[in-house]
User: What shape does this take?
Amino acid sequence: MKELLIELIGAPLGTIVFQLIFAAQYTVYLSLIAFVGGGIAAVFITLARIAPYKPIRSAATGYIWLFQSTPLLMLLFLCGLGFPHLFQFQISPWTAASVALTIFTSAYLAEVWRGAIGAVETGQWEAGNALNLRYVVMLRRIVIPQAIKFGLAPTIGFLVQIIKGTSLAYIIGFQDLMLVGKRWANAPVDGSEPFVIFPIMAVLYFCLCYPLALFARQLEQKALARGQ
Amino acid sequence: MPIVSMKAVQKWYGDYHALKDLDFSVEQGERVVICGPSGSGKSTLIRCINGLETCDAGSIVVNGIELTQRSDSVAKIRSLVGMVFQQFNLFPHLSALENCTLALTEELGLTQPQADEKAMQYLDRVRIADQATKRPAQLSGGQQQRVAIARALCLEPELMLFDEPTSALDPEMISEVLETMVSLAEDGMSMICVTHELGFAREVAHRIIFMDEGALVEDRDPVGFFEHPDNPRTKKFLSKILR
Ligand SMILES: Nc1ncnc2c1ncn2[C@@H]1O[C@H](COP(=O)(O)OP(=O)(O)OP(=O)(O)O)[C@@H](O)[C@H]1O
Ligand SMILES: [Mg+2]
Assistant: This one.
């Protein structure tokens, strides 16, 4: 593929584009880790957030509040530089970026999903209670199936935010599209000026995000149509 | 033994006194209609019976079981009491049949075929068996409410609570729901029914209760209630509603 690109658009640019595309895969991996890890964590936080016991609810509310009000950049600094420095341990940029983005994602998704569950009419809970259904059965069979309708589009939409969010991980040395791109933009090589590199990077980010944004919009419209 | 016995029940919403020292009981097989102006506490009263609201003082005993904060007493009582809501509260993502079978398979341990068979009996009982596979949104309001009644009946309750079951319905659908309720009454079901359908009340109720400002103001047989109510507030209410 590298040869093909060089053939097509010439030597320095072909190499650069190839390296950018190659680096973009790490953007994708990191996004997936954050999304899957954060999603799993968010399931538990959401359940805690709506648990019938107040201390558990409060703890989950605190977690969401804390990490939703912390800028992602600061989470990255803390995981990649702050804590390792403070407690004298080594951490790879991979691990640090994964942890920071997972925490960030989990807090955000937990809040979205709690909202989706809250959007299910209280009459549904009441009907379930009147039928003497257990709490878990109500969640599994009544509330969650309806909440998915409200939560799916914002969840997919947030995936776009994560992909863009991963670009901040270059700050702790994570080798992704952003870091490689910046490196090229700063390199004194003809044909790698910032005004060439950054548009290419933008196109690559666009290619990653746009299909998801489109998909989220479709889901939203479907949900709207169903709501009528 | 009465099916419901409430003694000195108090309920507060914040500073609002919703039920004021209420004594109320219903015998086995008895049918009681509750009416009264909006905000008088009718819904609160019947929701206390199956623990959808918790009362702040007094005692509630259903079929010999005292309702306490303990979840096992709440569960026991709920298994004896069916409830029908003003807004139907059907599960919109499930078919009429699945609405009825959910509790049977999840909580009573019936297999799906057993549950289906039982649910179909009750859907047939409310004359809607032919719509069993439809979702609530595909049914008319009257049909939805009949499914909701079938859903409650599937659990074979000793007592049915109705909270304004026809208030959300278009006029032409009210009678089909009332007919269903009359036929339940004919089978001897104990019922507590909040409604302003006074024709229905006259026909099926053993007692009619008028509530106002969180208290039972009038508690009479239907003839007495309509012909010579004791309380001036009842008279005023009746003159408004019978006009
Ligand atoms: N969850 C609540 N929180 C605060 N106040 C409440 C709550 N539920 C009911 N109330 C208040 O308690 C009073 C009695 O309410 P309730 O629903 O029992 O009245 P109702 O007789 O059923 O009226 P309606 O005919 O409008 O249904 C009303 O003034 C209402 O505003
Ligand atoms: Mg009411």
About this structure: Chain B touches chain A at residues 50-52, 75, 78-79, 81-83, 85, 87, 89-93, 102-103, 106-107, 151-152, 155 (CB under 8 Å).
